[in-house]
Amino acid sequence: AMMGAFGPAYRERTEEVIIATIRANQKCFCLRGPDGKLANKFILVANTLAADDGKTIVAGNERVIRARLSDAQFFYETDLRTPLADGLPKLADMVFHQKLGTQAERVERIVDLAGRIAPQVGADANDARRAARLAKADLVTGMVGEFPELQGLMGRYYALAQGEKPEVANAIEMHYKPLGPSDAVPSEPVAIAVALADKLDMLTGFWAIDEKPTGSRDPFALRRAALGVIRIIVENAISYALPYDLSLLAFFHDRLKVSLRDQGARHDLVDAVIKPDSADVLRIVQKVEALKGFIESEDGANLLTGYRRAVNIVVAEEKKDGRSFNGAVDLAALRMAEEIALAEAVEVAHVAVTAAVGQDDFAAALAALADLRAPVDAFFDKVLVNDPDAKVRANRLHLLAHLRDTMHLVADFSKVSG
């Protein structure tokens, strides 16, 4: 390992450009000083022990790096002379995908979508459309042509230098993020709108042409895009419904399960609250958290036990009789105090749960279910479901089915593991 240096004046330039130049062209390591700022030093590794202790090797690398940094500075200064918007026509010559058109056509879709998303995330629609318009403009610059990994970042630098609003410039960089599970997510409203538009356009586009991930094959990084959408929504606490087809929603659901599992959440609870048309990712996450608290409570745990007993009985008797017991409960045919109390409690809970679910108040719905714990326990302690009287037996099975269906208004408890 050897240490080389470059002129201190270069440190006044964009540090990401310096790092990219030294790393990409010379495969050397950049360094920071004790103050955290980029140092004008670099480390290189040679596989020979040179007679002059590496002085010639270091000098050669320094010479090449100085030349590369000068080239980078030339790209930067040349790019700055052309407003980002003036480069947009060149995007018409860049194919995004054969079936999805050019980058210019994609930009038009993102502009439209960002403008429609903006009010839902608290962003100014005009700023969102402006940022979306310029989001891909740096793809035609000399710097990004040389260092593709700087796309977005260079767009932000150029936009700021050319007088764009800070929120517009920041959105140009951040709309690509997050690029991985440890990467930051956009947090400013304009950046959120453009980032969501970019990723949702990609996902809906490839779904439309049936280019979906299969197994380990995901050439267009659509899993990453979906996880990005999920992280942006959840980490910014945005209530945003994904207005897409059930196939794409199912893909989002799968990615959400992966994300929550990585965070230690129980996948069975996710399965319990997700329906095929569940489109609000934030609400799904909130429901999972609320359901977890409920089933870990004494009332919730005991009610879950009673639910399973009720469902097992109903399923067994339906199979034996070859019929379903989802009819109305005949209140007049109820005999014992415990079954009367349960019937009344289930009806009260059904009304309360229906109202709470209609208002998207999941906590209130769970609270209504918690009130069923005592009458359910009393019912199974005192009442024989399979009464010798066929009508009494059927009525009690209808009651247990009504209990099951009332609980299913909140979540599919059959998917909650023991």
Helix-strand blueprint:
Elements (H helix, E strand, L loop, with lengths): L1 E4 L9 H12 L2 E4 L5 E7 L10 H26 L14 E3 L3 E2 H15 L7 H10 L7 H5 L6 H9 L4 H9 L14 H20 L13 H14 L10 H17 L4 H7 L7 H15 L2 H24 L15 H22 L3 H9 L2 H10 L7 H19 L10
Helix pairs in contact: 1-2, 3-4, 3-8, 4-7, 4-8, 6-7, 7-8, 8-9, 9-10, 11-12, 12-15, 13-16, 13-17, 14-15, 14-16, 14-17
Structure notes:
It is a single chain. The chain is mainly α. It has a 3-stranded antiparallel beta sheet. A two-stranded antiparallel ribbon has the order 4-5. It has helices spanning 15-26, 55-80, 103-117, 125-134, 142-146, 153-161, 166-174, 189-208, 222-235, 246-262, 267-273, 281-295, 298-321, 337-358, 362-370, 373-382, 390-408; strands at residues 2-5, 29-32, 38-44, 95-97, 101-102. Strand 4 (95-97) and strand 5 (101-102) form a beta hairpin. The chain is elongated. 58% of the residues lie in helices and 5% in strands.
